[in-house]
Amino acid sequence: AAQEGFDAEEIAGAIEEAGHGPLPRLAVVGRPNVGKSTLVNRIIGRREAVVQDKPGVTRDRVTYEAEWAGRRFKVVDTGGWEQDVLGLDASVAAQAEYAIEAADAVVFVVDATVGATDTDEAVVKLLRRAGKPVVLCANKVDGQSGEADAAALWSLGLGEPHPISALHGRGTGDMLDAVLAALPEAPAQTFGAAGVGGPRRIALIGRPNVGKSSLLNKVANEERVVVNELAGTTRDPVDELIELGGVTWKFIDTAGIRRRVHLQEGADYYASLRTAAAVEKAEVAVILIDSSESISVQDQRIITMAVDAGRAMVIAFNKWDTLDEERRYYLEREIETELGQIAWAPRVNVSARTGRHMEKLVPAIETALAGWETRIPTGRLNAFLGEIVAAHPHPVRGGKQPRILFGTQAGTKPPRFVLFASGFLEAGYRRFIERRLREEFGFEGTPIHLSVRVRE
Ligand code: GDP
Ligand code: GDP
């Protein structure tokens, strides 16, 4: 039935679109200069200049949303790094490994004009071990004459090479069709409801030296283990099951946290990729901040990553044992000015060194997960929206007053709402609605998605 000017199909479509669950993830891997970034740009179809960044400028963005033939998915790009102290093969392998692990299918890019190299063979080994679906791309086949080079890549044993030109678009449509065929509808690790689907998954993230490894050791009640091995070699077990507060949790990528290899060149990008991979695999992110230092741009980036990924979130201010009166005063000011956007995240002030407030971590995580999974019944939501609209109508603009007509929660993990309105709702009003939703229903520890449909 038509509802205030929206037809049923339109409403159903809007709810479907707004309520999509976690998107399946595609990793694009390969050696440097084979054209990964060019291909990612083509897949996401834009605008975000990911190719030829200025040298020395850190690229921290590693996942993008894309759509092909009406299906949406995420792309994990590994093109943004420079060769580092590990040497070429180990670097490529380490990067690819994280991306593959966080992905549901992989596009493996080879430069057809060069042919398969030893480094390519190393990646093939990783791909075999991971057992994920692979689409092999023979890139830089800009014309008919390159097709033979592409065919030579059958030798990699990964099935049919798809000849493409990432630069000019040749063959990329057929290749993307193959990608969609390989990609599951939803990520392999779909989020389980509390109690089912195995242990809840926690990513412990934060910039180097905030105390991730110390905190992990503290909660795991173990001696500090320093494993001095190079990234990209054996990394088993990657995740660890740890019992806290009588519940078993899965801590993501603890091997990476414990290893603590501090790379120089390209380390930032590498760390970003690792963080993004951990966040992808997790349900809740515990973000560590070093309270003895100023909140940095890097802290902000990590927070943004978790928010963009739509994960439940807890902020842990570590090294609380080091604070004096003065630092504490300034920290509170910084939190107000720098972290106002995530004032909804539960906060714990901890010390991995002394064990201070460790017992508060689990309740905070549980609170965040509860907020993340909250579902508001449509009746209650609309009663609430009705009250808001009556008490705080949208300001009149150009003689018109846009009104929220009705709304529904289209999904959870994180909560996603779609509002149907008679006109465009200004950003300030949308923020006001979000604030009021939080006041009314809690949503502690979770980002909220709010989309608005306007009646034509
Ligand atoms: P990445 O290091 O794997 O991310 O590689 P880039 O995407 O940065 O590409 C490396 C170089 O190869 C750039 O100069 C691109 O313009 C070029 N390139 C990428 N794809 C193609 C292609 O399909 N054909 C040709 N001729 N050049 C390409
Ligand atoms: P990661 O790089 O995030 O894993 O950080 P680490 O756990 O290796 O810690 C970096 C440094 O901070 C080490 O010297 C730790 O001993 C120290 N550290 C970690 N947590 C605390 C804490 O709560 N208080 C103090 N004073 N130092 C800490």
Automatic annotation (TrEMBL):
Pfam families: KH_dom-like (PF14714), MMR_HSR1 (PF01926). The keyword Repeat applies. GTP 2 binds at residues 206-213, 253-257, 318-321. Keywords: GTP-binding, Nucleotide-binding, Repeat, Ribosome biogenesis. InterPro entries: AAA+_ATPase, G_ENGA, GTP-bd, GTPase_Der, KH_dom-like, KH_dom-like_a/b, P-loop_NTPase, Small_GTP-bd. Residues 24-187, 200-373 form the EngA-type G domain. It comes from the Bacteria. GTP 1 binds at residues 30-37, 77-81, 139-142. The keyword GTP-binding applies. Belongs to the TRAFAC class TrmE-Era-EngA-EngB-Septin-like GTPase superfamily. EngA (Der) GTPase family. Associates with the 50S ribosomal subunit. GTPase that plays an essential role in the late steps of ribosome biogenesis. This is GTPase Der. It comes from Streptomyces stramineus. The lineage of its organism: Bacteria, Bacillati, Actinomycetota, Actinomycetes, Kitasatosporales.
